[in-house]
Design a protein that fits this description.
It contains 12 helices and 18 strands. The chain has 2 domains: about 120 residues, Urease, subunit C, domain 1 (Roll), CATH 2.30.40.10; about 290 residues, TIM Barrel. α6 links the parallel β10 and β11. Helices cover about 25% and strands about 25% of the residues. Strands 1, 2, 3, 4, 5, 16, 17 and 18 form an 8-stranded mixed sheet that branches. By secondary structure, it is α/β, with parallel strands linked by helices. α4 packs parallel to α6.
């Protein structure tokens, strides 16, 4: 426990008190990282490079090539990881452990887009350090799902000591929850009223954005600022996304037809279980990613039938949810843990790669690195960050994970993690698990 308490404090001191900069990090000298293999994970280009060398300068990747072919500048520090592999830092887009010991889950109004979790962030807290030691370098910390719209999430890096340097984007998303918790609000609401409530909020947000757009373009007076609706300026300008706690085919369909088609917002599916995969063809057509988890299988459970009032259409078989999305033609499938502070309620954040391993066990095709992509470039694209994160490409943040083999193999271990070129975890100094 001493290690867990002191590790983030050391990071904070080292990054903010004027000590000499480490090779590769922002403001420091250059760094070359060599390894047997690099999993590049580009969106539509090369995926794997053998005998890899990465050049890092000022926190970003400046070159990627083959050892012996790519020249390493003479003033660069060299870190040789031998037979180990390199991969991009993983992204967790459904995280509840970014700050306080429990969800930020106010249930005052059925929609409360003004609520922000950013003020509750506790950088490099012990649970985030566990995630970091598994290779998770960026998280979307979001409110809970007690109401239809819980508020604004924040995207930040796991292993950097100060909020200002760790911040990736705020708002990270607008958290919307469609069924599967909000119905317990007040006297109880059902799907029809939940859909009405969300549409009413989105109509208000669209009108608020239009008034500000008219003002900015010289076509109207300056609107009165409404903190409740401010997030919709970013949403309708496509600077952030809606992340939807959504499940059951009918409700996933509403995510696609209302949020994406009717209002034209960028959105991705969180969860997506209980026949949600029946909407996979439409989700693919509309370009809506599915970040599936923490449940990874559907089955015709009597408890589902009692609680949800319907049968899962799978003839009583155990079916992998990720595989069902694949079977429906979906190509943008990722993973999440829905990690909360209470161990056992959901998978802990360090088990994000294990979610991918279980998906393969239940039929998910990994023949083209779909698991590693679903942990890296797919969530990066879902969050609108593919130009900065999610792959080992020139110009992107040097968020690099050193692993001993295939990242989702439970026998694989994480040996080191770099965030923006700075080594923030090294198993040699003390393995966390």
């Amino acid at each position: 426990m001493k290690l867990r308490a002191s590790f983030p404090i050391v990071l904070c001191l080292a990054s903010s008190t004027g000590f000499a900069q480490e090779p590769g990090e922002r403001g420091g000298p250059g760094l070359a990282i060599t390894a047997a293999k690099a999993l590049i994970c580009s969106w539509d280009g090369a995926q794997v490079l053998d005998r890899a060398v990465l050049l890092v300068d000022d926190g970003r990747i400046t070159a990627l090539g083959v050892q012996g072919e790519l020249a390493i500048p003479s003033d660069y520090a060299v870190r040789d990881f031998g037979a180990q592999w390199l991969m991009p830092g993983m992204l967790e887009l459904h995280c509840h452990v970014g700050g306080s010991i429990q969800d930020i889950n106010d249930v005052v109004y059925l929609t409360q887009p003004e609520l922000r979790v950013a003020p509750t962030v506790i950088n490099a807290n012990p649970l985030l350090m566990d995630a970091l030691s598994a290779g998770v370098t960026t998280v979307l910390y979001i409110p809970g799902s007690g109401v239809n719209c819980g508020g604004r999430g924040v995207l930040f890096k796991t292993g950097l000591g100060r909020y200002e340097e760790a911040l990736v984007r705020e708002p990270g998303s607008l958290k919307i929850a469609q069924y599967g918790n909000p119905e317990s609000w007040a006297v109880g609401v059902a799907k029809t009223f939940e859909n009405w409530s969300l549409r009413n909020m989105l109509q208000q947000g669209r009108a608020y954005h239009a008034r500000w757009k008219a003002f900015e373009e010289g076509r109207g007076e300056r609107p009165e600022r409404d903190l409740r609706l401010d997030v919709f300026r970013d949403l309708f300008d496509h600077k952030t996304q809606v992340s939807t706690h959504t499940q059951i085919y009918q409700v996933v369909l509403m995510t696609l037809t209302m949020i994406r088609q009717e209002f034209g917002l960028d959105v991705y599916i969180d969860h997506g279980e209980w026949d949600g995969a029946l909407a996979a063809p439409l989700a693919e057509k509309l370009g809506v990613p599915a970040i599936v988890g923490p449940r990874v299988i559907d089955w015709n459970n009597p408890g589902y039938r009692f609680a949800l009032g319907f049968d899962v259409h799978n003839d009583g078989r155990y079916e992998g949810i990720h595989a069902k999305y694949q079977a429906g033609g979906h190509s943008m499938i990722g993973f999440n843990t829905d990690c909360v502070s209470f161990r056992g309620l959901t998978p802990p954040p360090e088990e994000l790669p294990l979610q991918a391993a279980i998906a393969v066990r239940y039929g998910f095709d990994d023949s083209a690195m779909q698991t590693v992509r679903g942990l890296t470039i797919v969530p990066a694209k879902a969050a609108g960050l593919e130009q900065r994160l999610g792959s080992l490409e020139v110009g992107k943040d040097a968020d690099i994970v050193v692993v001993t083999g295939h990242p989702i193999d439970p026998r694989t271990s994480v040996e080191a993690v770099f965030i923006e070129g700075r080594k923030v975890y090294d198993a040699v100094d003390g393995r966390r698990f």
